[in-house]
Design a protein that fits this description.
Layout lengths: L1 H11 L4 E6 L7 H13 L4 E4 L9 H11 L4 E3 L13 E7 L5 H17 L3 E9 L7 H6 L9 H13 L4 E5 L10 H10 L4 E4 L5 H10 L3 E4 L1 H5 L2 H16 L4
Parallel strand pairs: 1-2, 1-8, 2-3, 3-4, 4-5, 5-6, 6-7, 7-8
Helix pairs in contact: 2-3, 6-7, 7-8, 8-10
């Protein structure tokens, strides 16, 4: 459990991490991947998350291969369904959508995927996945046919995360959804972080270094940036600098 243990160790040191989310559906040319990899290496990105709510292009394997060929940054699958499995990745977030009541995404698809994952060399990381409502309906909430947690219901969010951890999940992932116009509030991140002891991943709607700073202060252990980088590649530099400065302030290098 190399990647999970790394995340646990980082949390113990209060060290923050940055993950770049790559949606294969949005990769139209492989050259865009190589450019992204080059920038990620310069910015000392910690993880690549790969996946999406809906995959219509048959290029998941190619994206993973390019990542593995061109860098040593760990590649972690972030699957929207049990079809998004690639054995060349390093790990998979075995997501259970604990914020919803769709049994298929709580346990159903996992039953189908488990035998394949058992035979693979992938590090399988049990992850409680929580969708939080934003200003608009996200692809994740639409495709999952679930109602996200309202942004002001902090006790529901913290209790949901705590229940996930008590059920044995090793990570909690709070997501406002890809392309969200609104990030998860500081107060909700703080309340969830206070309720759990496992690493907390936060993504969706993080479009500025200021929002990153707020999430870090509130207790996020891993920040995930995706759509925002497509619109503003320089954001990766700004965000990585913010995380570097935060870690440096804690004498973490």
């Amino acid at each position: 459990m190399k990647i999970l243990q790394d995340l646990i160790n980082r949390k113990a040191r209060k060290q923050k991490s940055l993950a770049i989310l790559i949606d294969p559906d949005k990769i139209t040319e492989i050259s865009s991947i190589t450019n992204l990899i080059a920038l990620a290496k310069e910015c000392y990105i910690d993880f690549f998350f790969v996946g999406g709510s809906l995959i219509t292009r048959d290029n998941l394997n190619e994206v993973i291969q390019q990542l593995k060929l061109n860098c040593d940054i760990p590649t972690v699958l972030f699957p929207g369904n049990n079809m998004q499995i690639n054995h060349d990745a390093d790990a998979i977030l075995f997501l259970s959508l604990i914020s919803g009541r769709n049994a298929d995404l709580l346990i159903g698809q996992h039953v189908n995927a488990a035998p394949l994952l058992k035979k693979s060399q992938l590090e399988v990381i049990s992850t409680g996945y929580m969708l939080v409502n934003s200003a608009s309906t996200s692809a994740a909430s639409y495709m999952s046919n679930t109602i996200p947690i309202p942004p002001d219901k902090h006790s529901i969010a913290s209790s949901t995360a705590l229940a996930g951890e008590m059920l044995g999940m090793k990570l909690i992932y709070m997501d406002a959804g890809s392309g969200s116009k609104q990030a998860i509030t500081q107060k909700m991140i703080r309340k969830v972080n206070e309720a759990i002891s496992c690493p907390l991943i936060v993504g969706g709607g993080i479009t500025s270094a200021q929002l990153v700073q707020e999430a870090l202060v509130a207790g996020a252990d891993v920040i995930v940036i995706g759509n925002a980088i497509e619109k503003n590649p320089d954001l990766m530099i700004e965000v990585s600098e913010k995380i570097y400065d935060f870690n440096k302030s804690l004498n973490i290098h």
